[in-house]
Amino acid sequence: MGESKGRAVVVGGSIAGVCAVHSLLSAGWEVVVLEKTTAPPTGSPTGAGLGLDPLAQTIIKSWLPQQQSDNLLNIHTLPLTIDQNQATDAEKKMSRMLTRDESFNFRAAYWSDLHGLLYNALPPDIFLWGHVFQSFCVSDDNKSVKVQTRVLETGNIVEFAGDLLVAADGCLSSIRQTFLPHLKLRYSGYCAWRGVLDLSNNENSGILAGLQKVYQDLGKCLYFDLGSGTHAVFYELLNTKINWIWYINQPEPQLKGNSVTMKVSNNMIKKMQEEAEKTWVPELVRVIKETKEPFLNVIYDCDPLHQIVWDRVVLIGDAAHPTTPHGLRSTNMSILDAAVLGECLMKSGVENLAVGLEEYQSIRVPVTSKQVLHSRKMGRMKQGLVLADEKVFDPKTATPQECKDLQQKCMPRFND
Ligand SMILES: Cc1cc2nc3c(=O)[nH]c(=O)nc-3n(C[C@H](O)[C@H](O)[C@H](O)COP(=O)(O)OP(=O)(O)OC[C@H]3O[C@@H](n4cnc5c(N)ncnc54)[C@H](O)[C@@H]3O)c2cc1C
C-alpha cells in the first residue's frame, strides 16, 4: 500500500457512489460525497427492484459489519435461484416455457433497501446532501483536483479539493460530458412501464393466490414473459411485493429535465392497462392494473467508451457505461467498478495514482463493454427488433439454441 492518504471527492451518492465510499475507505482513502438530492433516500418513489449477482453479493457482504454481513444481506433480499423465459400466446392467454435455468444464483433487492444497507454501514458525515456539482478543474501541476458545488439550502458555491474526482453521477453524467461533449445516449427503440405491487395486505391475497397458481416459483424465480415484439419481467421482492417491468417499442419520447423517468398521465396509464389486457395472461394483467403509480422509463444505452479515466478524474457506474437493463448489469457493474477501483488504488497508493487508474480502466472497460453490447442484443431479441445478422427473434418459432441464448448466464464473464 502507498504511504500517504489520498482524498477522493465523489459526485453522486447512489449505488455507485455509496459503493465507491466503501471501497476507497477500505483502501485507506479519505472520501467526501457530493449528492444533489437533499436527503438520504428512504423508499424512493422511482426506486423499484434489482437483481444482485453472486460476486456483487460477496463484495457487499465484505463491506457490511462482519459478524452480521450474511444475515444483513439475506434479511434485505430474496433469493432468485431460477431464470425462466416463457412465450405468451396473446390469443389463448397461455404461456409456454422456452428455457429454465435452475442454477441462477442472484438475490432480489429493493433499490432503497440496498442503498440504505450500504449507506447505514458508513461513518456519518461523509455524505453532503443537497450539493449540486457545478464544475471541476485539475491544478496546473496535475497534483490535485478542485470541485465546485452549489449548496441548495444557501445557494452558496463551495469548493472541495482532493487527489481524485470520482464521477458517480449516473447515465446522464455531466462530468463525462466535459470530456465527451458530443457523446449522446442511444435510444433503444422502446420504453419500459414499471411498478411495484404491494401484496402484503389481506385485501390483495386473491391476486397473490392467482399469481402463484400460474407462476409457481414466484419468490425465487426471475420470470420473463415474451410476447410478440414485447416482453415483461417480474419477480418478487421482500414483504410480498411484485416488481414488474414491461417493455414497449415506440418512437423516442421527448424527455424533460435531467432524468430518464417520464411523468405519466392517467390517460397514458389507462391505455397501457388496456394494452396489457390484449397482451398478457390475466394474472399478470391484474398485477399491472392493480399497481399504484406505475412509471415509465425511457431505455437508453451508449456505445462502449474506450476511456473512463482522464488525469485525476475517473468514471464509475452508469456514468462509465450506460446500459439497457436486460442483463441485470447496471447495479452489479457499479458495485464491481467501485470494488476494482479501491483494489487498484490500494495497490498503487496516491503516489502512483495514474498507475492505479490505468489498471482500473484496463480491467473494467473490456468486460463492461461486452456486457453493454450483450445486454443491447438481449433487449433487441426480446423486443423482436432486427439483430446484427438481420434476423428477428420470434418466441413462437424459437429454436433450442435461441432459447438457450436467452438465459442470463450467457452474459459474457458471468460469475467471473
Ligand atoms: C432514486 C433512484 C432509484 C433507483 N431505482 C432503481 C431500481 O429500482 N432498479 C434499478 O435497477 N435501478 C434503479 N436505479 C438506477 C440504479 O441505481 C443505477 O442504474 C445503477 O445502480 C448505477 O448506479 P449509479 O450510482 O451509477 O447511477 P444512478 O443511480 O443514476 O445515480 C447517480 C447519482 O448522481 C446524482 N447526481 C447526478 N448529477 C449530479 C450533480 N450534478 N450533482 C450531484 N449529484 C448528482 C444523482 O442524484 C444520483 O444520486 C435508481 C437510481 C436512483 C437515483
Question: What keyword list fits this structure?
Answer:
416 residues, six-stranded mixed beta sheet, D-Amino Acid Oxidase, Chain A, domain 2, globular, binds flavin-adenine dinucleotide, single chain, 20 strands, FAD/NAD(P)-binding domain, 2 domains
Give the number of domains. Answer: 2
Whole-number average pLDDT?
94
* CATH topology heading of the largest domain: FAD/NAD(P)-binding domain
CATH class designation of the largest domain = Alpha Beta
Give the N-terminus to C-terminus distance in angstroms: 25 Å
Give the name of the CATH architecture of the largest domain. Answer: 3-Layer(bba) Sandwich
Assembly type: single chain
Q: How many separate helices?
A: 11
> Which homologous superfamily in CATH is the superfamily of the largest domain?
FAD/NAD(P)-binding domain
Proportion of strand residues: 25-35%
Biggest sheet overview: 8 strands, mixed
Residue share in helix = 25-40%
In terms of per-residue confidence, which ranges show pLDDT below 50 for 5 or more consecutive residues?
none
Radius of gyration: 22 Å
Bound molecules: flavin-adenine dinucleotide
What gross morphology would you assign? globular
Based on secondary structure, the structural category is alpha+beta
How would you characterize the overall build of this protein?
The structure is a single chain. The protein has helices at 15-26, 54-63, 69-76, 111-120, 174-179, 205-214, 266-279, 282-290, 330-348, 353-382, 400-405, and strands at residues 7-11, 30-35, 49-52, 77-80, 82-89, 94-101, 106-110, 127-129, 131-138, 145-151, 157-162, 164-167, 186-198, 221-226, 230-237, 241-249, 261-262, 295-301, 309-310, 313-315. The protein is an alpha+beta fold and 416 residues long. Helix 1 runs parallel beside helix 9 (330-348). The structure holds flavin-adenine dinucleotide (FAD).
